[in-house]
Specification:
There is one protein chain. The chain is of the alpha+beta class and 147 residues long. The chain has 2 domains: 4-102, no CATH class; 104-147, no CATH class. It has helices spanning 11-16, 74-99, 113-131, and strands at 4-5, 21-27, 31-37, 42-51, 57-65. Strands 1-2-3-4-5 form a 5-stranded antiparallel β-sheet, with no helix packed on it. β3 (31-37) and β4 (42-51) form a beta hairpin.
Length: 147
């Protein structure tokens, strides 16, 4: 998702200062980088997924910020960050359980863009591999607007 100004700001974005912007970058197969910018500060988090075996994947989250006053709060923020990630992990575990039954996927336009993109890229990668040609990313950068 291209870097763009935030139309609606959460309380966390107010900490960044004036004119917050966000950019999200995915590097498949398992890297997500979200960077929040402002006139004065930057907050970035990197999430990587590393397959361990067919049933397990390790999630690693790394955070970076330019707020000097945030470092002393790190011990207090770590459990919040862990819970934030764990809620996503619980959803993925439930999805994995449901996918064992091979249901038809029903994807909703805006809410499921990331899943749709994943499947587009996966199809192109498989096709390029089968045809012995270079992978061509079928996606173009864009700005998502949520209601």
């Amino acid at each position: 998702m291209r870097r763009h100004p935030l139309l609606r700001k959460s309380w966390a974005h107010h900490l960044l200062g004036g004119h917050p912007e966000v950019e999200i970058i995915y590097r498949l197969p398992g890297i997500r980088i979200e960077t929040n910018y402002s006139d004065r500060h930057t907050f970035c988090f990197l999430i990587t997924l590393t397959p361990i075996n067919d049933q397990e994947t390790e999630l690693t989250a790394t955070y970076y910020w330019t707020f000097p006053w945030l470092a002393p709060l790190k011990p207090l923020l770590a459990p919040l960050a862990r819970e934030f990630l764990n809620q996503d992990l619980r959803i993925v575990a439930k999805q994995s359980e449901g996918l064992k039954y091979n249901p038809p996927l029903t994807l909703i336009k805006e809410a499921d863009y990331q899943a749709k993109w994943y499947y587009q890229i996966k199809r192109e990668y498989e096709k390029a591999t089968q045809e012995g040609r270079e992978f061509v990313n079928p996606l173009k950068t864009q700005i998502l607007r949520w209601r």
